[in-house]
Amino acid sequence: MRDSKMSKRLDPLPLENRRFTETDSAVPRVRLKMTPVALVSHIGLCIVALALPIFVALAQMPVPSSVALFQKTGAYIGVAAMATLPVICIGLIRRKQWSRSAMLGFAWFEMVWESIKLVLTLFFYVPVYKRLMTDELAKQFSAAASTQPATRPAAFDSFTSYGIYIMAVVTWLIFFGYAFAARRAMHTTVAREQLRG
After folding, report:
1. Are 22 and 98 in a shared domain?
2. Are 58 and 75 in contact, with CB atoms under 8 Å apart?
3. Which of 55, 89, 175, 191 fits a disulfide with 44 by CB distance 3.0 to 4.6 angstroms?
4. How far apart are alpha carbons 186 and 163 in whole angstroms?
5. Whole-model pTM?
6. What is the CA radius of gyration of the chain?
7. 82/63 same-domain check
C-alpha cells in the first residue's frame, strides 16, 4: 500500500518525463526531467515578466521626433508580442493542440522582426540617437560652464561608441535566441506527442 502511494506521488508532473529510476536504494526514486515544451513555456513566461514593463515604458517615453516612429513602433510591437506569448505558453503547459502551431508562428515572427530591428537599430537608430545625445550633452555643458567648471564624463564616449551597440546585440540574442530555441523545441518528437491533442 505504501509503495503504491509513493509511486503515485512520484509520477511525472505535467510536461515532465521519467529519466530513470534508482533501484539501488531501499526506496526507489524516480528522477524527472523537464521536456523541451516545459522549458520553452516557463522561460517564455519569465521573459514576459521581465520585458513587458520595459516595452510599456518605451511606448510611453517621450523621444525626439527623428527617432519617435522607430522607437514607438518597436515598443508597440514588443507589447503585443509580450501580451501574446503568455497565452501561448499557458496553452503549452495545458497541452492544447493549437499551442504548438501558435508557438511556431510566434517564433518565426520574432526571428524575422528581431533581425529587421537589429539592422535598423545598428544602422539608423543608434547613429541618430548617438548624435542627439552628444548634442544635448554639449548644450548642457555649455550652459553649466557659464556658472561653474564642468568636465565631460569619461565613460560617455565609451558608452556612445560601444555600449549602445552592445545593448542592441544583446537584446537581439535574447529574443532571437529564445524564438530559435522554441522553434527547434516544437519540432521535437516529444513536443509532437505531447501536443497532438
Report:
1. no
2. yes
3. 89
4. 35
5. 0.74
6. 24
7. yes
11 and 84: one domain? no
Number of separate domains in the chain: 2
CA–CA distances in Å: residue 164 to residues 92, 104, 168: 35, 31, 6
In tens, the pLDDT along 86-128 reads: 999 999 998 899 999 999 999 999 999 999 999 999 998 888 8
Provide the 10 A C-beta neighbour count for residue 154. 7
What is the distance between the alpha carbons of residues 120 and 81, in angstroms, rounded to a whole number? 19
DSSP string computed for 106-139: HHHHHHHHHHHHHHHIIIIIHHHHHHHHHHHHHH
What's the pLDDT tens digit per position in 7-40?
A: 444 444 455 555 555 555 555 555 556 788 999 9
Q: Which domain holds residue 172?
A: 36-194
Instruction: Indicate if 79 and 163 belong to the same structural domain.
Output: yes
pLDDT at 146 > cutoff 70: no
